[in-house]
Specification:
- This protein is 30% helix and 25% strand.
- It has 21 helices and 30 strands.
- An 8-stranded mixed beta sheet has the order 4-5-25-26-27-28-29-30. A 4-stranded mixed beta sheet has the order 1-2-3-24. Strands 8, 9, 10 and 21 form a 4-stranded antiparallel beta sheet that branches.
- The two termini are 49 Å apart.
- By secondary structure, the protein is an alpha+beta fold.
């Protein structure tokens, strides 16, 4: 291959999306032999990756020579953490969805600025919790691996065990505006609704009660007129809904058409005397305003008369009583403000003090209806708020946590700049797409064997089993060029470290002599991943990978070399490969190739892969999309328990038919055999093989109607 002639300059490569994060980038290479693929060669600093203790994976150490990420922050924040959305509102991180627009940051000249960012993934797990408390009262519940932006760069919540990394300490100052100790208030109490209507109606509505003579000339009548006309439909909707909850029915109709200088306006009306009386009572000044009334009043008067221009929040009115009430409500919630001198027309403004931190606290507290006034995009990221770290406290418990991935690599969590979690695949870490980019942008750790050898020679290394192939395939096509695996196998063998390999690549056959030598000194387990046995479907789902026949030939070669090979029949894809006929066909071929064990499991749709797969499904099998959204709703990555139970009842009898040992991936126990792989020394005896036609028929019946009894009823609802 003519690699040198196709080399990209380091400067050009560093300009690629995400490549600025590859500090050890040596060069980026393309070649006609791998059309459309760019190889980014890097010098890694570590080779062994320790699996987090909270992970469900049944192993502790991995090595990933390709597309690897040696340092990841995973599953970071409490589900109640408030994420600032691009429209200026906040949303619980647990409620953020893929495709949502949030506020991130990006460096622009001398400043980092707030910019819109798109959420590409959201997922959850359980991790040990730490509380970070800031001087302004802001609290953040995060994992020890989470990172926040400080004046001195990104820092983790906790130091790493056995290594150094920058972490938060008292007096570190975080970047952002904080929450000021005020929790986000989303509920709407009666007092809050009444306060909002008082501010909105007193600020912008017309209420008229007047006596008129009757046209007949016989006496007079009293007319009642209420009208609220607004250009911002969000505030009009809220006002109409709050009035409806107070049994006031209003009619909506156009009020003013749009012109070149003015937006269209709609209005709500009522002329009923009873409604007029109810409204008058609702907006009556309370003798002792509650905090909830004041919160609602500030939201209503801001929607009616407020502005936020060039970073300055003002509420303007000409009524001294209203201005006084605004000041009282602000004071009740701890805001600083000044009342500016009256203009020639008698109108005066109340101006909020405290910059962006005070503005954001005002918005979080009051929750105005009008979105356009909440925008902070383009503002510089400064740290005017007292965001000094007061304490980092271990809460001593493991809790549910959630994280997201965004297009900028960060987001705003409880008012401070928070780093992404990049655990969902190394390409997401590099800001590369998990669909096409996963197959066209390959990161290669060209010095991985040398680094691994040094790590394995450390006196602290306990010779624990190491797993290869859990993140990306070590025998992918690029291995034919880079030949990294022989050095890795030799380093593991020489150090006396047992290891297991999981691959879908037939290139494994090249190293079978070396692996057989290694097996004479250490425990070596081999497994082949074969998900699809239909060549047409396999080509669509796994383009560029060897077909089932080629992989089974590799299983046969490994068996002949003396290995007891495990086949990972994973993932079993709902509606496409989970029929009895498909599973029976797969197991027949697996047994014929000489494998002795099968690990099976339903499809996982983790963030990144999920979006790509659903897009593929919509193109190829649109009739299945609604079913998959039922099976994998929201951020759910695993198939529901009912489906997995149904699948187990279908597979287990067929395993017995074919005389194969095996289990579901869910049956793995941390600390047990690595990913279910067994060496010759610890393999269990295979169960008796059912050879008679009567026995085979009985097992097939067991996998059919029996498996569909109560589980099928549940799965029908899910599908």
């Amino acid at each position: 291959m003519r690699w040198q002639g196709q080399e990209l300059g380091v400067a050009d490569a560093a300009a690629l999306p995400g490549m600025e994060q590859l500090n050890g980038l040596v060069r980026s290479v393309t070649t006609p032999d791998f059309a459309g693929v760019t190889f980014h060669e890097v010098l890694c600093k570590s080779a062994l990756n320790h699996v987090p203790s909270a992970s469900a994976m049944p192993f502790d150490w991995t090595v990933n020579p390709y597309r690897g990420c040696s340092h990841a922050c995973v599953y970071c924040l409490s589900p109640d953490t408030q994420v600032l959305m691009a429209d200026g509102r906040s949303k619980r991180i647990a409620d953020v969805q893929v495709g949502d627009e949030v506020v991130g940051t990006r460096r622009d000249g001398a400043y980092r600025r707030y910019v819109p960012a798109t959420v590409s993934a959201q997922w959850s797990t359980r991790k040990r919790a730490y509380r970070v408390t800031l001087a302004d009262g802001t609290e953040l519940i995060a994992s020890g691996d989470h990172r926040f932006l400080t004046e001195r760069g990104w820092k983790y919540v906790q130091p790493a065990t056995g290594s150094q990394r920058p972490h938060l300490t008292p007096n570190n100052k975080l970047m952002g505006f904080g929450m000021g100790g005020a929790s986000t208030r989303g509920e709407q109490t009666d007092d809050h609704r009444q306060g909002y209507l008082s501010g909105m109606i007193r600020g912008d509505a017309m209420m008229l009660k007047r006596e008129y003579p009757r046209t007949s000339g016989r006496g007079t009548y009293v007319a009642h007129r209420f009208r609220l006309a607004l250009a911002d439909v969000e505030a009009l909707d809220r006002s109409q809904e709050f009035l409806r909850r107070s049994d006031v029915s209003t009619t909506r109709r156009p009020f003013a058409t749009a012109t070149a200088q003015r937006r269209r306006m709609d209005a709500i009306f009522t002329s009923r005397a009873a409604d007029f009386g109810t409204i008058a009572a609702l907006i009556d000044w309370p003798d002792e305003p509650s905090l909830e009334w004041s919160r609602g009043f500030l939201a209503g008067i801001f929607d009616a008369e407020g502005s936020c221009s060039r970073g300055i929040l003002r509420i303007t009115n000409g009524d001294e009583q209203i201005l006084s009430r605004i000041g009282g409500a602000l004071r009740a919630h701890g805001f600083r403000f000044v009342q500016e001198a009256p203009r020639p027309n008698g109108v005066s403004s109340v101006r909020l003090l405290g910059g962006l931190p005070a503005r954001q606290r005002f918005f979080e507290l009051t929750r105005p209806a009008i979105t356009r006034k909440l925008n902070i995009l383009g503002a510089a990221v400064k740290s005017d708020a007292p965001l000094r770290v007061v304490s980092v406290e271990d809460l001593g418990e493991t809790i549910d946590m959630v994280d997201i991935t965004t297009s900028t690599g960060d987001f705003i969590a409880n008012g401070v700049v928070s780093h992404n979690c990049f655990a969902r695949g190394t390409h997401e870490y590099l800001e590369l797409d998990a669909g096409r980019d996963f197959d066209t942008q390959v990161v290669v750790k060209i010095n991985v064997a040398e680094v691994l050898g040094k790590e394995l020679r450390r006196g602290s290394w306990q010779h624990e089993p190491v797993m290869l192939g859990t993140n990306t395939d070590p025998y992918q096509r690029a291995e034919g060029r880079y030949k990294l695996m022989p050095g890795i196998v030799s380093a593991l063998t020489e150090s006396g470290t047992p290891f297991s390999i999981l691959t879908k690549g037939t290139l494994l056959r090249r190293d079978l002599p070396l692996l057989r030598e290694a097996a004479g000194q250490v425990h070596v387990s081999l497994a082949m991943s074969i998900a699809v046995f239909d060549d047409e479907l396999q080509h669509l789902i796994e383009p560029g990978t060897p077909n089932a026949t080629a992989r089974l030939e590799t299983v046969r070669a490994a068996t002949e070399a003396g290995f007891r090979v495990t086949v990972f029949l994973m993932p079993i894809i709902p509606h496409l490969t989970d029929s009895i006929a498909a599973i029976d066909h797969a197991l027949t071929r697996i047994k014929a190739a000489g494998a002795v064990r099968v690990v099976y499991g339903a499809l996982h749709l983790r963030p990144g892969a999920k979006q790509w797969f659903l897009q593929w499904l919509a193109e190829r099998h649109p009739e299945l999309v609604s079913s998959y959204r039922g099976l994998y709703p929201g951020a759910t990555a695993t198939a529901p328990k009912a489906y997995r139970s149904w699948l187990a009842k279908r597979v287990r009898p067929l395993l017995r038919v074919h005389g194969l040992d095996g289990h579901a991936e869910d049956d793995n126990v941390r600390g047990g055999p690595v990913a279910g792989l067994a060496s010759r020394a610890d393999a269990r005896a295979a169960p008796p093989i059912i050879t008679t036609s009567r026995g085979r028929a009985a097992a097939l019946r067991a996998a059919g109607p029996t498996a569909r009894s109560e589980a099928d009823e549940a799965s029908t609802r899910l599908f």
